[in-house]
Amino acid sequence: MAGVIVVFTCAVEGKDAEFNEWYDNVHLPELLELPSIRSAKRYRLNEATNSSVKQRYLTVYDVTDPGQAAKEMAEAVQNGMLISPALDRASGLQGYFDELASS
After folding, report:
1. How far is CA 45 from CA 4, 49, 51, 59, in A?
2. What is the SS3 string spanning 52-88?
3. What is the pTM of this model?
4. What pLDDT, in 10s, does the model give residues 22-74?
5. Which domain of life is it from (predicted)?
6. What's the chain's Rg over C-alpha atoms?
7. Residue-range domains of the chain with CATH
8. Is 8 within 8 Å of 93 (Cβ atoms)?
9. How many CB atoms sit inside 10 A of residue 77's CB?
């Protein structure tokens, strides 16, 4: 079943440039090699209009199957996928969503 994974993240204070460099040039390419991840798109919080959201970054992954993608991502981390120290791991949130309809 197709769906998406949404991931909200923050960089460690003062490490946004390092975080974005790693996410764009290391992390995304590694995740896009996983069979169930079709594409990904990143966003930065518009702080002027979203004051209640604490995470500054959002990534939306288009996946063939959210459950399978979750397994593949967990295996990749267990197998040594690099996680940057610039990622504020305590602030991260992620959700796995099955597609209901598309247009």
Report:
1. 19, 9, 9, 11
2. CCCCCEEEEEEECCHHHHHHHHHHHHHCCCCCCCCEC
3. 0.91
4. 999 999 999 999 999 999 999 999 878 867 888 999 999 999 999 999 999 99
5. Bacteria
6. 14
7. 3-98 (3.30.70.100)
8. yes
9. 11
